[in-house]
Each structure stands twice: as C-alpha cells, then as structure tokens.
What we know:
Shape: globular
Strand content: 5-15%
Bound molecules: D-serine
Number of strands: 15
Oligomer: single chain
Structural class: alpha/beta
Order of helices and strands: HEHEEHEHEHEHEHEHEEHHHEEHEEEHHH
Amino acid sequence: MDIIIKNLIQNELERQRHGIELIASENFASLDVIQTMGSILTNKYAEGYPGKRYYGGCEVVDEVENLAISRLKQIFNVEYANVQPHSGAQANAAVLSAVLKPHDIFLGLDLSMGGHLTHGSPVNFSGKLYQPIQYTVHKDSGLINYEELETKALQNKPKLIICGASAYSRDWDYERIRKVADQINALVMADIAHPAGLIAKNLLNSPFQHCHIVTSTTHKTLRGPRGGIIMMQKDFPNPFGLTDLKGNLKMMSQIIDLAVFPGTQGGPLEHIIASKAVAFQEVLDESFTSYAHNIIQNAQMMAKELKHLGYEIVSNGTDNHLMLIDLRNKNITGKQAEIALGHAGITVNKNMVPYDDKSAFTTSGIRIGVPAITSRGLKVNNMHCIVDFINEALKNHNDLNYLKMLKDRVAKFMESFPLYPNL
Ligand code: DSN
C-alpha cells in the first residue's frame, strides 16, 4: 500500500482513538461497514437502477442495491427508497431538481439559525438556482418559529417547504408544517440527516406520516458509510397541486429516481451502497435500539452538566443527539473554543448561534454531539468527566501548556473505550 497514505491513515486512527469526538455529525462506523466500502465493488459501473442498467455485468450489484433498498424500507417502514445519492447534499439536490424549476420559491430554515447549506443558503446551489425564503427560530426560546413559517408560506406560496436542520436540538412538529403546506398545495421535505438513527428507533417524531419526501445522510446517527438516501412513505394525492404531476407514488418514485440518475449523478457507488446495506442491517438489530437510547441519555446528561457549570444551551436543552452552546457569557468565541478544545484532544465545531453577532468564521457558539462517543461505549455516568474536560479546556484556553497536559489526560481516559482494536 502507498506508504505515505498508509502512515496518514495510521495518524488519523491514533487521533480518533485518543481524542474525544464531539462533532455532532460524525460517528464511528463498524469495521464491517468500513471494510465493505473498501471492497472490489468499487470497480463496477452500474448507471441506472437494478434491472435497468446501462452496463452489462450488473447482476451482482443489482442484488446488492436491492438488498440495501429493502433493508432501508424495513427500518423506516417506507414504500420507496433510493440509496444512490452520494451524500445528503446530493440527495437534497436531486429532490429540489425533481420538484422545483429554476427560480421557484421554497421555504427552509436559515443556515444561521441551525439550517443547512442545501436548505437555501445563498452560497449553495439551493440559494442560487431557486428562490429560497427562510424561516427562523424564536430569539427567546430558540425554538422553531412555526408562526413565521406559516406566515411566510401563506405570503410567498412556496412549492416546497423543507424542515430539518444541522444544528437544532429539539424535535420537529411535522404535522403542523404539513397543515401549512396543505393550505398552499406545497410539498414538504424533511431532511433527517442528523436524527435519522433516533427516528429509526421511534425515539423522535416520525416525519414519514406527514412529509412527502424524506432525505438523510447515512453516516451520522445512522452510523453507516458517508452517503445519502431518499425515501417516501405514502401515495400522496396530488402533492404538487399541479396538473402535470399526479402525485401517485409510482410517478413520484420515477421522478425522484430520474432526478438522482441521470438528473444529478452518474454511476452509483456500489461499494458504498453495499456498505449502506451492512449499516442498515446493524440498525435493524436490537442492539442499535439501546445505542439510540444511550445517545439521548448522554446528550441530555451532558446538557444538564454544562448548564450546571453556567453554560447556556440554546433552547435550554436537547431532545436529540446534539446541543448548541452559546459562549457569549463565558467571554470566548466559538473559534477560540474550537481551537482550545482541539489542543486538548476534544473535537467540536464552532457554530453560529441564533441571532449571532459574530460571523460564521468566528461564531459565538460551538455545536456538540454525542453519537461518536456513545459508539465508543461512553454512558451517562461518563458525561460528568467529559463536561469537566470541556470546562477545563475553555477556562484555560490561553494556556497551551495546560491544554497539552489536558490532552494527555483525555487520551488516558479514552484508552478505557477501545476503538477498532483489531486495526
Ligand atoms: N456538515 C454537516 C454537519 O456537520 O452537520 C451537515 O451536512
């Protein structure tokens, strides 16, 4: 193997092993998931869908892809699944291209309020190609401003309402959003990339009953390979309110399939799709239920411990796997916090908090999530220690020697939670 890359992979393994991984969108996939990604399936071109490919020799990868589809349908009890999107952003690009025309209006949560780039950020295709209208969270509570969402929807008549976020610690009222959408014949798309693993185990509200289309990544709480998926549950009558699209599931499925390939992607990554299938089987296993429960318990305990030390959690707590800490009362920026924690072997990302007075490059907050440390086996009684490490690093953020000493303590602590011992 390329010795330079081999060494770099080893360095990254050591970093992952010795650090505390608190990036809310990251996780540790199983060795099975990882090794399947590294399989000879990468050699195969398979443009098209099982049974309808543009290349010969697809009989085996057809089985792989069909298995991934059927396992995903089983997890979420859905009628339709597309496992080809290379990422969550690609899944969203495909859906937007399927249901909108250039310059069409859609509604999404503002990125600076916890939304996602693909939900209408001006620097993203979603903000350049279409006309996004953005809703926000309440300044006082940090909760989704459903009243504003409704007002903006009724005023602007978007064709699509997107719900879901990348930095929002509370559950969603999908039913309420659907009621708004029905008044204007809009479609609703839920992007559940972050909480998918918790929704899979019914620990959060299910979007499938109310949202026409659901997208997700597979590598966050679902703990699979890096990738995207698109799902639909039901046959919604006339979801577009348009005469050219009748909205029956079959037609919708074809439209979405075509939007993925050939609309926005070429050949599917069958090695990744196989790895998705492996991960989906893990999600179906009973052990994933306790994993998902542990995630929520860990996150809630972490929020409680942080609040105890005077940290301000946006929305005052969490229902899911993550939380946003507003650091303004601690006199440190998100950027400074991310750097200081990094020196101590604790990985987080700086994050704007709602109504932030600082830019996305500085930020007033950090986002913290527990899926990865929960995968390493940390339980609720370990959260005190993690919060203590965080607090020590932030209090001493200017003292590099202290942070170095803390990094050794962090590494020693994490030795009790082995990561990939067979690598
Ligand atoms: N970048 C991902 C996250 O960190 O939440 C979202 O795509």
